[in-house]
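Continuing from the previous page...

OK, I double-checked the sequence for Radical SAM protein against my notes and this is the correct one:
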Amino acid sequence: MENSDQSLWNCNFSHIYVEKDAVNNVNTKTILRYFKDANKIYIDSYKEIFNRSHQSFNIQKKSINLILAIKKDNFIYKGADVCENFGNKYFYYTSSIMNCIYNCEYCYLKGMYPSANIVIWVNVDDTFKEISEILKQHPMYICISYDTDLLALETVTSFVNMWIDFAKDRDNLKLELRTKSSNFNSIANIKPIKNMIIAWTLSPEYIIERFEKDTPSFKKRISSIKMAIDMGWKVRICFDPLIYVDNWREVYSNYLNELFNLIPAEKIYDISIGVFRISKTYFKNMKKQHRNSYILAYPFEYTDGVYSYREKDKNELVDFVYNLCKKYVNNCKIYV
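Thanks. Re-ran it with the corrected sequence; updated structure tokens here:
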């Protein structure tokens, strides 16, 4: 699959819903200029569209609409236990956007949200204000591309630019930008900052073609990674989630050998490894939406509120990938 992020705009966002309170926000005006031909509908609350009953996530994914709204509260969340904190005591995440332009079969957002439409919280400055208050108490490590892919939407929002500008003079703030995007060009003109990590989720092309619909190909992601590394950015590689398929040993062996032939291992900041896992509620909702899903047909084990692969399968998969990575990268830089 040779999708570029830009091509996704051609079939999406024919309609943009704008909260009346968001109309005069500078980010609203910027986004509306980008989609000047879209139909604009003004609403009192994003919930009128996003939280409607009897929506079909799958049907909406064929033509996503956009909602511009003002976030009222809950700007910052403490990091979840199922997420890697990379040794950071004060681990947080934030969502400037709800939902993702991509359509990965395994994505927990399908079970989390009633709608496939995308909500952009245009008042990102309010998030910065809350972070500034927390930083007065202690340092922060914060994932800024949670529940979405910020870099994929950067051409529209410029939010990554804003985050970089906010963080560059705050040494006690560390950012992680998680992405599958090939849209690095949108921030290529910015000087790298030492307290931000760009974390690319990578998968074998075999997995991308079958389960990561609308995402850039392996080669396109690698191209962006090379650009980022050459410019001096810290780049994390995320093998997460690993997907258990029939020929997984062959798939992941070929993929990792190709990856480390293309990217100098010593240039990689660190590596994260994880398997598919999802909460009970999200899993139940996903099963309703995707009754014929190959991934969800696996006989998962349920432990401590989370569904994941059987212990034997999970350990074999993780150990296999971990041991392959150790051939190229010091194990102190590999997080499992």
